[in-house]
Design goal:
alpha/beta; Cobalt-precorrin-4 Transmethylase, domain 1; Methyltransferase, Cobalt-precorrin-4 Transmethylase, Domain 2; Rossmann fold; 5-stranded mixed sheet; 19 helices; 20% strand; elongated
Amino acid sequence: MSKDAIKAGKVHLVGAGPGDLGLVTLRAKECIENADAIVYDHLANPDVLAWARDDAEIIYAGKQPGESRTQQQINALLVEKAREGKQVVRLKGGDPFVFGRGAEEAQVIASAGIPFEIVPGITSAIAGPAYAGIPMTHRAHNSHVTLFTGHEDPTKTESVVDYAALAKLGGTQVMLMGVERLGDVTSEMLKNGVRSDLPVALVRWATTGQQQTLTGTLSDIAQKAAANSFEAPAVVVFGDVVSLRDTLNWYEKRPLLGKRIVVTRTRKQASALSNKLRALGAHVIELPTIRIEPPSNLREFAELVQDAHIYDWIVFTSANGVEAFFDIFFKLYDDAREIGGVRIAAIGPATAQRVKDFHLHVDLQPEEFVAEAVVREFKKQGSIENVRVLLVRAEKARDVLPKELSAAGAIVDEAFAYRTVPETRDTRGAQRQLAQGGADLITFTSSSTVENFLALGLPWPKGMRIASIGPITSRTVRDQGLNVDIEARRHDVDGLVQAITELFAQKN
């Protein structure tokens, strides 16, 4: 066996699907999770990189005019990384073997003697029309489907697309990567006898929150596309099935479709909010501004967790605190009963749910999700003179709760479970997305997300409004000289999503 073969890793040519995260295959997700290096294209949804390991090398290959590596550079990169002994994932939009040059990359990898795997993905040629309410086949309209590309090898002297054959074949025909040549393509089709009133649809950024669909006929679709500045990436569907869109259009009726919304929560927490917004049609830009790190004094925190059974109450102020507490607790004890007879208070439903996940009961949960409400609830229960309270919280959090509980006579120990630090990594290119495309709305779920976003010094996109999860966060926004356009009445993720939906409903 050659020395190169011994060193070689493996390349996985992975189809990232058409854009919707829900359409990525389980095998693709598994490959991303295990990858040492990931090389991704412009059309691969960068949100899939959330599944990558923190230590994975992330490389943007572009494949967009003006910012691309050449195909030869990409080929060489894949071989180089594999020969370093790495598990390499080559992420390509749609399916790697459907007009994606995946076959060319596979040939280079095979020639280099490097093991490889092909992971098919859902192609936009099928998913795009489906999300626009256009079925590829229908017994009353057609019995076959043809895929062709409008973006051929520029070195070719003439097109290999046989428009006469396409005209004779009929059925449903889907063109990928050819919007910029739409006028030439439709002209050729008309010259070869395709009827001028044939329904045609263009689906742009298919299956994402930016999806747009334009319909017309073979004779006028090119003019309509030009008039509407309808640009790539888009799929073009030719055929009578396009007429079914009038009754089958489902995706584009979602209330937040086309809205670009920035989520600033930690990477781990972002998915809960992002998924709910995506389900309503929004295009989500995940731009985490904070990261959760262990506390500065982990030993001190562990000692307090070890002695949790001596307290009358444990107060959890966040789900992060609950996770940090029980991570230490179950390293020290193997039985939940070691927590003793202590009662538990939690601020907010997400925090309470995280406690319940450990099969423990929440004894006190105020209706309002702020520290002041906890103090009021304690006082309703009578005197808390000499009651021992362990307050599990973040470092440098507001000191309202310990001060007021102490003032009411409680004996309070603060257990600093974690700290929030600014997130400076931008492996998914979220800052570039925001700079290039702007946003309609930014969401803030804590004071630290506000402060750290502004500390990044990013230009504020024109017209971007602010949604706040609650009054404390809103106060921080205003202290920074900004206006809060909407504040959640219920101070949790569901309340924030409801407020955002209502905000955009008012403007429509």
